[in-house]
Design brief:
Layout lengths: L14 E2 L2 E4 L6 H7 L17 H16 L3 E8 L5 E8 L7 E8 L8 H13 L7 E6 L4 H9 L3 E12 L2 E11 L4
Parallel strand pairs: 5-6
Antiparallel strand pairs: 1-2, 2-3, 3-4, 4-5, 6-8, 7-8
Helix pairs in contact: 1-2
The site of coenzyme A has 23 residues, from strand 5, helix 3 and helix 4.
């Protein structure tokens, strides 16, 4: 947990092609409970598997706390037209002292298959470039995760290489493909 200064949300919510990123709200609980049925999502974040309503509410509170602790920006991914939440996207600032951030994203199962993850990632990355200290945004993606790799490529990220035995996920050490986007002109 970072003890950096509290972060402020952008004045204008990041948007891209019909997708808008905003703070989580209580009404996003049903979407989070749908997301929590995905077997992989609980392994890569703090949303419990098959989350109850209370667990989803506690998750929302933790996302708000990320700003207060300076850990990063955790947004709900929403449809711009209806404000309906369809997933989550986070920009994490561990490493920001070196000009680096990392990003993560998930789309709830019922909303997949429409390229929403890629649009959310473009909105998030465009927002990252409004923060002058960030020069590089990194993604860590397991090699089997074709939908996430395709999402990264569509959002303009480049594959940089395979990080072997990079971390433990679900009790097993796994390799990660490293993708990154650089600030224009760097
Ligand atoms: C990754 C994720 C956000 C993508 O969701 P999405 O935006 O609905 O993705 P889509 O289904 O629209 O697929 C995006 C692209 O991947 C392709 N794709 C999807 N599944 C694929 C598969 N199994 N094999 C190959 N390509 C695949 C799609 O065809 C699409 O490409 P296209 O736009 O060129 O047609 C979603 O799958 C998810 O939330 N996964 C669980 C959490 C996760 O893995 N997050 C990323 C951690 S690094």
């Amino acid at each position: 947990m970072s003890s950096a200064a509290p972060l402020e949300l952008p004045d204008e919510a990041p948007t891209w092609d019909g997708v808008r990123l905003r703070p989580y709200r209580t009404r996003d609980v049903p979407m989070l409970r749908d997301l929590a049925t995905d077997p992989y999502v609980p392994l890569i974040g703090t949303l419990p598997a098959r989350a109850t309503e209370d667990e989803a509410l506690a998750y929302i509170q933790r996302q708000h706390d990320r700003l207060l602790t300076g850990t990063g920006y955790s947004f709900a991914v929403t449809l711009e037209e209806s404000d309906e939440a369809v997933g989550g996207a986070g920009l994490w600032l561990g490493g920001v002292e070196h000009g680096r951030a990392s990003a993560g994203y998930s789309i709830a199962p019922q909303f997949r298959g429409h390229g929403l993850g890629g649009r959310a990632l473009i909105a998030l990355t465009t927002f990252a470039w409004t923060l002058p200290e960030i020069h590089r945004v990194e993604l860590f993606i397991e090699p089997w995760n074709a939908a996430s790799i395709r999402t990264a490529l569509k959002a303009g990220y480049s594959r940089e290489g395979l990080l072997r035995s990079h971390q433990e996920i679900g009790g097993t050490r796994v390799d990660m493909e490293l993708f990154a986007a650089l600030r224009a002109g760097d």
